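Input/output pair, single chain:
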Amino acid sequence: MLLIVCTGVILASLDLFIVNVALPDVAADLDVHSLADLSWVLNAYAVVYAAFLVLFGRLADRFRREQGFLLGVAIFVLASAACGMATSLVMLVAFRVVQAAGAALLTPTSLGLLLASTPPERRHAAVRTWAAVGGLGAALGPVVGGLLVAADWRWVFLVNVPIGVVALIVGWRRLPHVPGHRVPVPDLLGALLITGGVGLLALGLVKATDWGWGNRTTLAVLSAAAVSVTLFVTHTAHHRNPLIDRSLFALRTFTGASAVAFVFSAAFGAMLLSRVLWAQDVWGWSPLQTGLAIAPGPLLVPIFATLSGRLVLRFGPGPLIAAGCMFFSIGAAWWAFAATAQPDYVGEMLGGMLLTGVGTGLALPTLMATGAASLPAHSFATGSAVVNMLRQIGMAIGVAVFIAVLGTPRGPSDAVHAYAVTSILVAAIALAAGVLALILVRPHASGEVPTPTSVSLTAEAPTAG
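Output:
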């Protein structure tokens, strides 16, 4: 079961970043000249994935988890095939939205299956494995993408089809039957508000360089984003059955891990895109060279994720997450001070990749395992969806901020300066995540069980579905 659900999570996580190294080829083939416009191939996926995670997580708590997981994989596979056949940027972004919806369904149901089928004493280790595999899939995206783009950029999408078909066949035969709970129908308006808010924020940030920060359009879009997010918060605070169950945030461990995951993911998303664009646009490397250059960092993720399982027992989750964020921050700062327009892999790229790989391996699995371990049974899928939603929103905002700060460098010297500034920004964000971890993340207190927002959430009887 772990192998099957991890296969689904790898598909969803890998696709967040496998497209990064293909962006220059996509732009050339589809005649796209603006990085801000091109970024929607990434951000449309991340924003829709983020918003629908909680909506589908709530739905997944109502019905049999294995059916929701298989449906999500099927949608993802069909949309991947459509992305591989897209003939315009608009068509590609539209199919990416559908692909994100499938990923948003398979992700919470996969963790829901895992938690419901694992004895309590083994859940922490199981979630750590799940998170490590997902983090490795996301980090390996540029590596796999580089290999596939060497043939054709469309293969970064088409490769999902055979893998997904195998997961569907094996999952249909081998996944356990996990019944749902009688929880209320999720709040669609809340999902629309948060989707609109984050989408408008990303749009305003990535287009501000083209429009101008003081331009009326920029100000209008950012204001609309603020209004939408404010309405979402107000709606969530007063609605009888909000999209995000308010009672989950009574769990201090869950709340702390969610907040840190949001900030750390902003640094992670900005870091990975910056390295891909730096290698291809400044150093002139091919997608394959770029993917292989990034590989040493991701390869360290599972090693240190395994090591973190032992370290967390000795030092606690907060200090361990903070240590991971510190390694990540030092790696980003390395790139800022070692940046040079002439390719220097060992002196510039390698050291930062190793340090950020160590940091990701220590921080990300510990964050996910610490947050999920505090969840009650009726909120396994919903709670994991909330953490993942905040991670995806963080990555979308990180990408948008990176593009806004990078601007349009003119010449090698401007590019070195611009990328150095973005690396310092990434280091600062990661450092802030580490400080938050020390303040907010505490070991799970026994008996810390939330009181559900809605009385009907307490029902444990499975639904007929």
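Residues 444-465 have pLDDT under 50 and may be disordered. The first helix runs from residue 2 to 17.
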